[in-house]
C-alpha cells in the first residue's frame, strides 16, 4: 500500500481548501474525511480543531498533523513545493505569513458576519471596508513581491510553491464574494499567477470532482 492522505475537515472549503488544492496539484492519493458528530470527535483531535491531515503510510502507521498552516508547509516539503534553497524557503515563509493576515481579515470582514448573522448594515459595512481599504493595500504588497520575482507567475523562484497555491485559492475566494474584485487591471501579476495554476490539469480535475465542497454550508451565505 502506498502513502495516502485524509483531509479531516468540515464539508466546506474553508481552511482546508488550500490543502486539498496542494494535494491535488501534487497528484497525491487523498480523500476527504468529514466529521459525523464533531462534539464527540473534537477531543480526539490533537488541538481540538480542524483541519487535521492524516497520512497513512505503507507500513500501516498513521501520522496525524493538526493546524492548517503546519499542514500546508508539511505537504509542501513532502512534494517539493517549498523552494529549492534556504533563501527561497525563508522568502516563501514570510510571504505566506502575509496571507495568514489576509485570512484573518477575510474571516473578520466577510465570514464571521455571515456565520453570526450580524445585522445587515453592520455586515455590509465590514464588507465595504474589506474591499475598499484592506484588499487594495494587500494587493499592492503582493504585486510588489511578484514583480520583484520577474512577474513570472510565481512568488519565489521559477516553479509553483505552496504560497502560489494559497494565493490562487484566495484570488478565487475573494472574487466569489465580489465578482471581478481582482482582475488583470488592478492585480495583473496576481491574475497571471491565478491563470497559470487554473490551467493545470490536476487542479481542474479536482475543481470538477465531487471531492470539492462548497464555500458555505447549505443555507449559509449571501
Describe the structure.
- The chain is an alpha+beta fold and 222 residues long.
- It has 2 domains: 4-80 and 203-208, Glutaredoxin, CATH 3.40.30; 86-199, Up-down Bundle (Glutathione S-transferase Yfyf (Class Pi), Chain A, domain 2).
- It has 8 helices and 4 strands.
- It has helices spanning 17-26, 38-41, 68-79, 86-115, 120-148, 162-177, 188-198, 201-207; strands at 4-8, 30-33, 52-56, 62-66.
- The protein has a 4-stranded mixed beta sheet with strand order 2-1-3-4, with helices on one face.
- Helix 1 packs across helix 8 and helix 6 packs across helix 7.
- The longest helix is centred in the middle third of the chain and has 30 residues, at 86-115.
- The radius of gyration is 18 Å and the shape is globular.
Protein topology:
Blueprint: E1 4-8, H1 17-26, E2 30-33, H2 38-41, E3 52-56, E4 62-66, H3 68-79, H4 86-115, H5 120-148, H6 162-177, H7 188-198, H8 201-207
Helix pairs in contact: 1-3, 1-6, 1-8, 4-5, 4-6, 6-7
Amino acid at each position: 500500500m502506498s502513502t495516502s492522505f485524509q483531509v479531516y475537515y468540515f464539508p466546506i472549503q474553508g481552511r482546508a481548501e488550500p490543502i486539498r488544492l496542494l494535494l491535488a496539484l501534487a497528484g497525491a492519493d487523498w480523500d476527504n474525511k468529514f466529521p459525523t458528530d464533531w462534539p464527540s470527535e473534537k477531543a480526539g483531535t490533537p488541538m481540538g480543531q480542524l483541519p487535521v491531515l492524516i497520512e497513512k503510510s505503507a507500513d500501516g502507521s498513521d501520522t496525524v498533523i493538526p493546524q492548517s498552516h503546519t499542514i500546508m508547509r508539511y505537504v509542501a516539503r513532502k512534494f517539493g513545493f517549498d523552494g529549492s534553497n534556504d533563501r527561497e524557503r525563508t522568502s516563501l515563509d514570510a510571504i505566506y505569513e502575509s496571507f495568514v493576515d489576509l485570512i484573518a481579515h477575510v474571516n473578520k470582514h466577510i465570514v464571521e458576519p455571515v456565520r453570526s448573522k450580524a445585522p445587515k448594515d453592520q455586515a455590509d459595512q465590514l464588507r465595504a471596508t474589506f474591499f475598499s481599504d484592506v484588499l487594495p493595500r494587500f494587493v499592492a504588497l503582493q504585486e510588489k513581491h511578484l514583480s520583484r520575482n520577474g512577474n513570472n507567475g510565481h512568488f519565489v523562484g521559477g516553479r509553483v510553491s505552496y504560497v502560489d497555491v494559497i494565493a490562487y485559492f484566495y484570488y478565487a475566494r475573494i472574487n466569489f464574494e465580489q465578482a471581478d474584485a481582482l482582475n488583470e487591471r488592478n492585480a495583473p501579476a496576481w491574475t497571471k499567477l491565478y491563470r497559470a495554476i487554473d490551467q493545470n490539469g490536476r487542479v481542474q480535475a479536482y475543481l470538477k470532482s465531487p471531492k470539492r465542497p462548497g464555500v458555505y454550508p447549505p443555507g449559509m451565505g449571501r
